[in-house]
């Protein structure tokens, strides 16, 4: 039984590379293995999955890829890296997937990436943000779609450098993502504004923030501006306590990811006003490919898109583009196709850079405001990710020698 | 000075929910001796139910009424849990009930997701309490002030109930000696139900009260669990004033920690706990445990004996079949079996500690993850060849175990368990925080086996040889004189010492040996996955092993291995379904209720009942009849 599906997978994978087989074999779907934390991070993974499904439906309605329908197998890894690696193996060797994609959590993304590099499977990391995924721990088989921690922090640092603020305080969850986000912000800010000074650094434990104490500690340092990396339940508590105690009065606040509907919407009418954030202002998108995406999404579902939705949608767009370019489902062909791949995505044209396999997908940067009792982004601008990456020399130094 | 006062007030306000949840846990443990892991889930339910009610009920009355009603509702849920899940297993081996409560956690997680959806919910503001009071010029949120006034009243009410009412007398009596209370004609079943309901209601109340300071989300059950356990242990299990004192100490210290050592947020409370337990082994206000109180509940364990020729033959055939797996199984079958083998060795090492040594460790992941990290660090930083790193990993884990064991073995019972948990958490925090060396949450990647081993089939044989070898060795040690000494130390420390056994040394050696074997499993793990992350050191990993050992059967030699194999296999199938946690939780509860001696124990009983001549069918029909 297992063997049969395995063989079928092999045939499917080799179908186009070898001589044209029977018509029936041609119609076998191209299978993509998708691994995510559907239970552990349901609020994030579900909209993402809906974005993927929308794109698959559109692709298949338009005749599929290379004349074959596209199919995703979605698997839950419980948020465990070890589990994800096991599932990746199963998807590739038993289910006949031609490549892997998925994950939100960086650690799971890194585990799959290391596995993919070792076994020679193509992995498109859709959402994990860790810089090391394409740099320090990068490998030729791993590609990343979303704008990384470094890129988004650089966008906020650019905005911060334009103000008069010199005394900065930071608050970030005490783990790899938080530390990377603070380091990237510092690095970019000091480059643009050498006299900037960091007067306080707060490191609450992830999802265990003691908001009152953190707010008091930040207030005590009397900063001009605050850089916030907390998210989820921590952000809600931080915003509530900070607003109550007047921490944000008369201060510039920069919030990494804070403008994403995933994080902003749960705050309801207590969403902070006047923060400079990266996020996803779907409500304002009308023209252009992103507007078309929002329309299609709302037509298909009785729901509005989150950032995850458009990332899921662009994941499929990228994979379709790679497969079309490769003209084959062979791993090496797909890998080669991804290098320098140009995609007309829902956020406009993006490129998977040859130098580090990072896409140039950007982010929306804007200011938060309250409208009709909920937080929105105003005065936003789409920033192209290509402008917020280190120089090629720096990237070469970061990536391990091949 | 102003700042100082503001800090203390913030700390006191934070102590409020923590105290309510912790004293509920403490009460339940004091009377029923159940370590209720599902207490965090009850807290989460309190938050969600309170939130739902607040949306319906308006105004001041609605807000405070919702909090009270949420407490009552969670109390009723507690009654249901106690009667359906816990009552059937009170006579099971010590601590077996905690497995049942773990099943409850899984069920509640999926139910909460079903009912309230995945998105985080922000709690509503208390009506009329938005904004701050200025105290000596420092802004303090109004709700904080209300909380820190309410909490002492709730504490006083509880104290009054405990000292002035009949229920309180019974509860205190049961905490001291529950057999005696039963002998005096008190209906224990209802007393247990009542206490469990009260404890649950307090957890629910804590969850609802914190709403204006946060909200409700699906992760809060595990988030609150560790601080609550720490508070209960520091205060002394079963002591309410202790829980209050400890909640305040932890909360206030945490506020100052945040200000003066912002990086300390992860480790502070564990360090406090270790220090307190070093000075006062039973917590600040706890009392020394009476010898025998934690003795074996239920039937005495039967002596272990070497496997019969028939069993040996069956196992040999099974192993031979396993060895032939690459011939008929696919690639994935090999990977899955490798995972299961590794987990079996991990579970067997904990089973050795728990079953034979009677030492309940809540932190066994420290050696499993520790071994994995030793290997990964060696490969990453010193470019040690894989073969050498693989062999050094268990030694490193063993060394960790010596240190931890040396400190922890001063304590016994639940305090011992909590101290092992504290050390595991310390190690986890170290790895999580020391990013330059350990990679923090981003872990260590590209830790692959040496070229000649880097093939699924070959690595499968490596895992097979080392796992089975390790398990057989653990079994062999159980039958050795050392194993006898270990069990003697477990069953009667005094008698064992009288016969000249240095029980402490024997136990420390056993602890180290179990750590060594856990480290071996960790080394096998890291090279099979190619990466390691702090997850492998988390509490959840320790619980995984704990649960399969109990479900397999603590009082049997094969329990750990059988439980691990069974549940890892089931998990692989179940996780393909959407609501798999619900099914898994129900399955765990089902096994707990139907087979309180674990899978192996119950099978053995069934086997013996029908005699070796009977077929397996007889056993199943009997099971069906009972149902």
TrEMBL record, chain A:
Keywords: Amino-acid transport, Signal, Transport. The keyword Transport applies. It comes from the Bacteria. The keyword Transport applies. Residues 1-24 form the signal peptide. InterPro entries: BCAA_transport, Leu-bd, Leu_Ile_Val-bd, Peripla_BP_I. Residues 41-367 form the Leucine-binding protein domain. SUPFAM superfamilies: Periplasmic binding protein-like I. Belongs to the leucine-binding protein family. This is ABC transporter substrate-binding protein. It comes from Roseobacter sinensis. The lineage of its organism: Bacteria, Pseudomonadati, Pseudomonadota, Alphaproteobacteria, Rhodobacterales.
UniProtKB/TrEMBL annotation, chain B:
The chain crosses the membrane at residues 6-30, 42-61, 67-86, 98-117, 145-162, 183-206, 313-334, 340-358, 388-407, 414-434, 458-478, 508-527, 547-567, 579-600. Its main location: membrane. Keywords: Amino-acid transport, Cell membrane, Membrane, Transmembrane, Transmembrane helix, Transport. It is a multi-pass membrane protein. Signal peptide: none annotated. It is found in: Cell membrane. PANTHER family: ABC TRANSPORTER ATP-BINDING PROTEIN, BRANCHED-CHAIN AMINO ACID TRANSPORT SYSTEM PERMEASE PROTEIN LIVH. Belongs to the binding-protein-dependent transport system permease family. LivHM subfamily. This is ABC transporter permease. It comes from Roseobacter sinensis.
């Amino acid at each position: 039984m297992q063997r049969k599906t395995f063989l079928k997978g092999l045939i499917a994978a080799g179908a186009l590379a070898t001589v044209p087989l029977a018509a029936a074999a041609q119609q076998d779907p191209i299978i993509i293995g998708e691994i995510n934390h559907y239970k552990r991070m349901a609020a994030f993974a579900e909209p993402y999955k809906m974005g993927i499904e929308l794109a698959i439906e559109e692709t298949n309605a338009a005749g599929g890829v290379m004349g074959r329908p596209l199919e995703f197998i979605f698997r839950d890894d419980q948020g465990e890296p070890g589990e994800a690696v096991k599932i990746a193996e199963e998807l590739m060797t038993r289910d006949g997937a031609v490549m892997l994609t998925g994950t939100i959590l960086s650690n799971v993304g890194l585990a799959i990436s290391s596995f993919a590099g070792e076994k020679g499977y193509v992995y498109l990391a859709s959402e994990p943000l860790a810089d090391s995924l394409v740099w320090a721990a990068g490998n030729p088989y791993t590609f990343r779609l979303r704008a990384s921690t470094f890129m988004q922090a650089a966008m906020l640092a650019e905005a911060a450098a334009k103000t008069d603020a010199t005394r900065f305080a930071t608050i970030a969850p005490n783990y790899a993502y938080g530390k990377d986000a603070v380091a990237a912000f510092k690095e970019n800010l000091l480059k643009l504004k050498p006299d900037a000074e960091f007067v306080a650094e707060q490191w609450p434990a992830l999802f265990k923030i003691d908001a009152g104490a953190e707010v008091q500690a930040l207030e005590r340092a009397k900063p001009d501006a605050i850089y916030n990396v907390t998210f989820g339940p921590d952000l809600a508590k931080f915003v509530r306590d900070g607003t109550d105690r007047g921490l944000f009065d008369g201060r510039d606040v920069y919030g990494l990811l804070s403008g994403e509907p995933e994080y902003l919407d749960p705050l309801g009418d207590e969403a902070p006003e006047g923060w400079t954030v990266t996020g996803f202002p779907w409500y304002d998108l009308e023209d252009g490919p992103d507007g078309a995406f929002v329309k299609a999404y709302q037509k298909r579902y009785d729901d509005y898109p989150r950032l995850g939705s458009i990332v899921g949608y662009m994941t499929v767009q990228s994979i379709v583009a790679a497969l079309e370019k490769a003209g084959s489902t062979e791993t090496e062909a797909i890998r080669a196709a991804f290098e320098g791949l140009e995609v007309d995505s829902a956020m406009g044209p993006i490129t998977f850079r040859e130098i580090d396999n990072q896409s140039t997908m950007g982010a929306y940067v804007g200011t938060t405001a309250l409208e009709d009792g909920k937080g929105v982004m105003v005065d936003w601008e789409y920033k192209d990710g290509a402008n917020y990456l280190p120089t090629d020399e720096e990237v070469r130094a970061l990536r391990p020698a091949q | 000075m102003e700042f100082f006062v503001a800090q203390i007030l913030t700390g006191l306000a934070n102590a409020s929910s923590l105290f309510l949840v912790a004293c509920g846990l403490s009460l339940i443990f004091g009377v029923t001796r159940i370590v209720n892991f599902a207490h965090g889930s009850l807290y989460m339910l309190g938050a969600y139910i309170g939130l739902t009610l607040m949306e319906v009920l308006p105004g001041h009355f609605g807000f405070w009424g919702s909090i009270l009603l949420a407490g009552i509702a969670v109390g009723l849920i507690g009654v249901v849990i106690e009667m359906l899940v816990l009552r059937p297993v009170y006579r099971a081996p010590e601590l077996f009930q905690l497995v049942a409560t773990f099943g409850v956690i899984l069920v509640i997680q999926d139910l909460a997701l079903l009912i309230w959806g995945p998105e985080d919910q922000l709690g509503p503001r208390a009506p009329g309490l938005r904004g701050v009071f200025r105290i000596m010029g420092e802004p303090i949120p109004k709700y904080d002030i209300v909380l820190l006034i309410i909490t002492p009243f709730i504490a006083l009410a509880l104290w009054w109930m405990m000292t002035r009412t009949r229920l309180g007398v019974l509860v205190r009596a049961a905490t001291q000696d529950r057999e005696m209370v039963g002998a005096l004609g008190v209906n224990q079943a209802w007393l247990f139900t009542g206490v469990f309901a009260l404890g649950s209601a307090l957890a629910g109340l804590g969850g609802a009260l914190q709403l204006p300071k946060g909200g409700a989300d699906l992760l809060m059950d595990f988030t609150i669990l560790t601080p609550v356990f720490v508070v209960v242990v520091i205060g002394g299990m079963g002591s309410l004033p202790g829980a209050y004192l400890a909640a305040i100490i932890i909360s206030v210290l945490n506020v100052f920690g945040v200000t003066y050592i912002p990086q300390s947020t992860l480790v502070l409370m564990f360090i406090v706990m270790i220090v307190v337990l070093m000075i006062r082994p039973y917590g600040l206000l706890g009392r020394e445990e009476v010898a025998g109180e934690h003795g074996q509940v239920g039937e005495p364990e039967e002596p272990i004996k070497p496997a019969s020729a028939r069993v040996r033959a069956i196992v040999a055939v099974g192993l031979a079949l396993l060895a032939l797996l690459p011939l008929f199984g696919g690639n994935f079958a090999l990977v899955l079996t490798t995972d299961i083998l590794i987990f079996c060795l991990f579970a067997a090492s904990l089973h050795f500690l728990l079953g034979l040594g009677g030492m309940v460790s809540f932190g066994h992941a420290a050696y499993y993850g520790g071994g994995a990290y030793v290997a990964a660090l060696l490969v990453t930083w010193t470019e040690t060849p894989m073969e050498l790193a693989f062999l050094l990993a268990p030694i490193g884990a063993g060394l960790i175990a010596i240190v931890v064991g040396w400190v922890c073995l001063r304590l016994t019972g639940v305090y011992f368990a909590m101290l092992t948990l504290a050390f595991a958490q310390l190690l986890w925090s170290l790895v999580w925080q020391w990013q330059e060396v350990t990679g923090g949450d981003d872990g260590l990647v590209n830790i692959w086996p040496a070229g000649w081993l880097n093939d699924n089939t070959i690595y499968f044989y490596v895992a097979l040889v080392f796992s089975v070898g390790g398990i057989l060795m653990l079994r062999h040690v159980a039958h050795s004189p050392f194993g006898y000494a270990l069990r003697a130390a477990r069953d009667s420390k005094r008698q064992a010492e009288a016969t000249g056994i240095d029980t402490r040394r024997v136990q420390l050696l056993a602890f180290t040996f179990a750590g060594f074997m856990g480290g071996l499993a960790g080394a096998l793990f890291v090279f099979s996955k190619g990466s390691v992350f702090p997850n492998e050191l988390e509490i959840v990993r320790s619980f995984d092993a704990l649960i399969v050992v109990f479900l397999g059967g603590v009082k049997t030699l094969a329990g750990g291995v059988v439980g691990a194999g069974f549940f890892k296999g089931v998990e692989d199938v179940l996780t393909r379904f959407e609501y798999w946690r619900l099914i898994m939780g129900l399955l765990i509860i089902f096994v707990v209720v139907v087979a309180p001696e674990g899978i192996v124990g119950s099978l053995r009983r069934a086997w013996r009942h029908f005699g070796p001549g009977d077929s397996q069918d007889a056993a199943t029909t009997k099971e069906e009849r009972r149902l």
